[in-house]
Amino acid sequence: MTVETKKPVLGYMPDDTPTIGAMLSLGFQQVLTMFPATVLVAILTKFDVGVTLLASGLGTIIALLVSRRQIPMYYGSSFSYITVIITVMSLYAPECFKDPNTFYCPEGVRLAQVGIMGTGILEIIVGLLIMRIGKAALDKALPPVITGSVAVVIGIALSGAALNMASANWLVAFITLIVTIGFSVYLQGKGLLGMLPILLGAIVGYLVSIPFGLVNFGLVAEAAWLRVPNITLPAFTDPRAWSVVVSVALIAIATIPESTAHLYQMSLYIDQLAKDLGRKPTSIKNLIGLNLVADGADDLVVGFLGGCAGTNYGENNSLMAITRNYSVPVLFAAGGIAILLGFIGKLAALVNSIPVAVTGGLAIYLFGVIGKQGIALIQSERVNLFDPKNLAIGATILVLGIGGNLGLKDGLFPFPIPVLFPNGIPAIVFSAIVGILLNAIFVWLPPARFGVKERSNIEF
Question: Any bridge partners for residue 450, and if so which?
């Protein structure tokens, strides 16, 4: 009679500490996963690549400490903030930002830093409120029809910027776009390679660009191997910073639900691993408030140093689900590796040598994905789009946000507000404010009070 032996379950819970070798290799894998998208945001917004990597690593470490080492998240650059950061750069550092031979605009970065730190403070306040009064109150003020519609605006409003970059060389841009889509679709579930479609697409686009003479290898040759990243202090005393704070902080409307969704998904996988290991579930889904406080702590760090606004990374969360590695010590190691990479000058120069047409091809795909994620949020939350009030809120946000960004001069509504918006209100900010006000009216004056019967939703 053969005795069947049970195979050991492989995986690390958040409080597990692997061996040094495993910790370093798994940590490097986390860095490799976040790297393509994180540095791409820096390229698109003309932030310093070295500072962005340094801030990503340090912000992750601080966030892990703030969450009391309970929530295994890695933090990288958020695409949700690109639209408003580009607006800030175009308004306050136009000559630098529009120069294709310039890769870093410190004047605009210093102003954006104030806004990013404002976002961090807002996320911390919301996190503390949720810990105090619960998430239901937040959902009432910011229902999915608002957060999802704002996410759509964030992505689609960037379409003009993506096409402008792609127009530098349409052939290279479309080759980059097609191969990136191919990698993202056909490499699913193929281990680490499946997590790196953006990196692989950028490499192919880079190689295709060489025969066209689009790659400036002189940037890499002239760069030092080691350099101190261009850390800058926020421009707190600049009067223009107040408008930037409001504009940037409002984007948290879209990132807070995204962060919450990441936490819920991760909680399911961690608790399943705990069950397989015969250990107690962690139920980190109950730590929504603490998770947002950790998000805010990350933005305070990156905002102070001059890195891109951050978010806990879905790419890294997916990697953890695939490898069943949720070890917080591994993420500490990843943060340390990212910090060290920030000091490698050749790496920053190599990233900056990526042709504009390549980033344009990547941007067409990525910006569209941001918009589609907003639609996915509306769909997953089963928002009733047969309800006229939901239609009104969503439709108004979409037209004001997308139409305003693409059709109005500098993407600004001509409603100047002294100190805050002396030149007019950015379209994405205006659309979010109007959506929030419309929703507030319907909360205070519900249609049922006037005898209106709510229309039923489609049954799935």
Answer: none
Mean pLDDT taken over the chain: 90
Q: Is residue 339 part of a domain?
A: yes
Written as six digits, the tokens of 199 are 């990196």
Single out the residue of 70, 64, 133 nearest to residue 301, CA to CA: 64
Quick one: average pLDDT of 325-352?
95
Q: What domain range includes position 243? A: 20-372
Q: Which of 245, 265, 272 is closest to 120 using CA atoms?
A: 245
DSSP track, 101-168: T----HHHHHHHHHHHHHHHHHHHHHHHHHHHH-HHHHHHHS-HHHHHHHHHHHHHTTHHHHHHHHTT
Task: Identify the CA nearest to 72 among candidates 132, 14, 1, 154.
Answer: 14
The span from the first CA to the last CA of the chain, in angstroms, equals: 50
- The 10s digit of each residue's pLDDT in 287-312 is 999 999 999 999 999 999 999 999 98
Could you tell me the maximum CA-CA distance found in the chain, to the nearest angstrom?
85
Structure letter (DSSP) for residue 310: E
Q: Residue 21 burial (CB < 10 Å; 0-12/13-18/19+)?
A: exposed
Residue 446 belongs to a domain:
no
Is pLDDT larger for residue 190 or for residue 68? Answer: 68
CA distance 246 to 253: 12
In a domain, 360, yes or no: yes
Give φ, ψ of 281 to 5 degrees. -60, 150
Work out how many domains the chain is built from and give that number.
Answer: 1
- DSSP state string for 74-95: -EEE-GGGHHHHHHHHHHHSHH
CA angle 259, 336, 189 (to 5 degrees): 55
State how far the Cα of 12 lies from the Cα of 22, in Å rounded to an integer.
11
Inside any domain, residue 378: no
Strand partners, 226: 344
Rounded to whole angstroms, the Cα distance separating 290 from 284 reads 10
Lowest-confidence region among 178-187, 299-308, 317-326, 430-439: 317-326
